[in-house]
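[Automated response] Your request has been received and processed.

Submitted sequence:
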Amino acid sequence: MKIIDISLGIEENMIFYPGDPEFTLNSVLDMSKGDDLNLSEVKMGVHTGSHIDSPLHFIKNGESISDLPLTRFYGSCLVIDRTDLSFGTEISRESLDSYNIGENLIILFKTKNSSILNNNFREDFVSLSLEAAKLLTKLKIQALGIDYLSIGSPDTHKYLLSNGIIVYEGLRLSSVDPGMYTFIGFPLKLMGSEGAPTRAVLIKE
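Generated structure:
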């Protein structure tokens, strides 16, 4: 069995979505300064690094992270390689016809975005089209993820989340081969929050 970490490291000066709070890690107690122990304080937005969008992120009165059952964050996963797409383009509905996308699958898109996760945010990231989101919803997938800090437009977010499909963003897929895996991506249990960081992994038997 091989466990593949597909999470971004959370650290200062990491990539973040424009307007989101930046990550800071401050020392509260420090043994090198005579304290009995080390203790740190973290400040960040809930959409920092590899994270989950729950329906509440875009849907008024939608489910929060703590409303979702743990079964939503685990399951059979298909990684689809779309590194052929240029920056500034969308994953289209038609391009998904050749894949065997079945009910309850977790779908992750590997794109050229993986190569820019260590850079400043780019507006022309590869994204998912609204029509592709509608197809994936019709196919009754369980969850959807991409290798950048956004899956796509607000309309794409709203369509997915209003249909109960949670969204994983900021996944690190550059070294992941396309194919089938077991996916695990449990969020921090932030009560009532619209999002949460996750330590996402793929398991290959």
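Summary generated for your ticket: Helices lie at 130-138, 154-162. The chain has a mean pLDDT of 96.
If you did not submit this request, please reply to this message.
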